[in-house]
């Protein structure tokens, strides 16, 4: 694994290894842990605002011994029209890796091509691989395994989280049900790429939730979609994760939300607060999963 660009790019053994390593890093945090990235400098370029992603990467890099350079696009020449490939070539000669949060997946791919150093996708419109790794760690902690479990994603199934979950199901073999209105379901070309993945698409949230082990939701108005907010909120209203929907899931089912959460929209206050420990455990696990990615990519860059 030279980069983390998408869950689509990983195989099952790579995912298992990252989750195993994240669990060890979590267990050993603060116990005189080693600093395998000592002497390294990593750049962070964020074209989208962030709370959990920025904090977890900055803390994680510091704990692993690396120096962090946070580069606001408006403060570097990229914000004045310099081609991404030129910025990539400069970074490739000065830092040891780049974490980028942006809109287009192709920007992440191009950065990896021209920089020649490890690149981490910290979120694009297409995928959010760091979040999925944290989610898988959380599910293993809370349920013991994702094998044989039914995971239900509610809301906009054609968003980066819906697509990332679909690739995770393809790679790991668990059952995924995406419950979305027709306007927000993954399109035929994406489903064709998934092939025989154990992914079901439905417009019926109640049927989807029946027998679920994990109920997962995300904001209905992602960054860059604000102009569509009124229509999105109206169309997606029946997919709110509330007590009635939760009651259809298996006893002991967990609730997950990748945050930020908008109470009363995609999830009710009652359900969020009733499962806050699970949701904020999930948020914490961003730190541990991303540290595992950083260590793996640093080792690969050094040929270890």
Salient structural properties:
12 helices, 304 residues, 4-stranded parallel beta sheet, alpha/beta, single chain, globular
Sequence-ordered SSE layout with sheet pairings:
Layout lengths: L11 H17 L12 E6 L5 H12 L3 E5 L12 H11 L2 E5 L3 H11 L3 E3 L7 H15 L6 E5 L5 H13 L2 E5 L8 H7 L4 E4 L2 H5 L4 E4 L11 H8 L6 H4 L7 E4 L11 H6 L1 H26 L3
Parallel strand pairs: 1-2, 1-3, 3-4, 5-6, 5-8, 6-7, 8-9
Description:
By secondary structure, the chain is of the alpha/beta class. The protein folds into two domains: 7-127 and 284-301, 3-Layer(aba) Sandwich (Rossmann fold), CATH 3.40.50; 131-283, Aspartate/ornithine carbamoyltransferase (Rossmann fold, 3-Layer(aba) Sandwich), CATH 3.40.50. Helix content is 44%, strand content 13%. The chain has twelve helices and nine strands. It has helices at residues 12-28, 52-63, 84-94, 105-115, 129-143, 160-172, 188-194, 205-209, 229-236, 243-246, 269-274, 276-301; strands spanning 41-46, 67-71, 97-101, 119-121, 150-154, 175-179, 199-202, 214-217, 254-257. Strand 3, helix 4 (105-115) and strand 4 form a beta-alpha-beta unit. The longest helix has 26 residues, at 276-301.
What's the name of the CATH homologous superfamily of the largest domain?
Aspartate/ornithine carbamoyltransferase
- Label the structural class: alpha/beta
Name the assembly state.
single chain
Number of helices: 12
Give the strand order, joined by hyphens, for the main sheet.
Answer: 7-6-5-8-9
Q: Report the mean per-residue pLDDT as an integer.
A: 96
Short précis:
The chain has 304 residues and is α/β, with parallel strands linked by helices.
